[in-house]
Amino acid sequence: MKKNIMSKTHYAYNFMRTGILNGTFGPGQRIVIDQIAKELGLSIIPVREAIRQLESEGLIQYKPYSGAIVSTINETEYVDTLSVLAILEGYATALSAAHITPDEISELERLNEQMKEALLAFEFEAFGELNREFHCVIYRKCDNQYLKEEIKKVMGKMDTLRRSAFTFVPQRAHNSVEEHARIIQMLKEGALFEDIEKMARQHKLNTASALRNRKASLFATKKNPF
């Protein structure tokens, strides 16, 4: 019975998470438990459990008088969240370095090559997915479970934007690939903990800075259109 409930919860979780990430459920949209349950042919219990999971990942939040709604995030929040992720991922990357295997190094190189191909094809959504996978390959080797859970939560918060940051700052994508190559080389060479942490942290902060500069440029253009 418990296994059956868990499988139904996972089904509801996947349905709602996919809907949030592909835009079926938009930011601020109310999640009606009864409606979801009816659509999936489930009772409300697994749907509620799935909503709790999504809330823990930052994709859903509860608001007074509204109940469960899809989390919203604006560009300022996105940049701020990315800055937090820079600190977390920098430390996680450094912790993971000692446990990275040659096979995983090869996987990182393969992913970075695929990112180059996506960039040449102007497929920024695919580029963003590959970028995320690249970093996941590294920090899944981190032996600090709490740190990994926090990273997952922050990434879930960022997912509510549902578009790759590189869509907004395509030039940053070129630099990101080059920085990945440097991170891979540092992992190969067994660089110092603090050097790896600094490089991985700065890598994310560079994306945050590119987005921040883009926003400032757009604001200046609106003030002085000619």
Question: Can you offer a commentary on this structure?
Answer:
The chain has 226 residues and is mostly helical. The protein folds into 2 domains: 2-70, Arc Repressor Mutant, subunit A, CATH 1.10.10; 75-223, GntR ligand-binding domain-like (Four Helix Bundle (Hemerythrin (Met), subunit A)), CATH 1.20.120.530. Helix content is 73%, strand content 4%. The chain has 9 helices and 2 strands. The chain has helices spanning 2-21, 33-40, 44-56, 75-96, 102-120, 124-139, 145-159, 170-189, 193-223, and strands at 60-63, 67-70. The chain has a two-stranded antiparallel ribbon. α4 packs antiparallel against α7 and α4 (75-96) packs antiparallel against α9. It is globular, with a radius of gyration of 19 Å.
Q: What keywords describe this structure?
A:
226 residues; mainly alpha; Arc Repressor Mutant, subunit A; Four Helix Bundle (Hemerythrin (Met), subunit A); 2 domains; two-stranded antiparallel sheet; 9 helices; globular; AsnC-type_HTH_dom; transcription
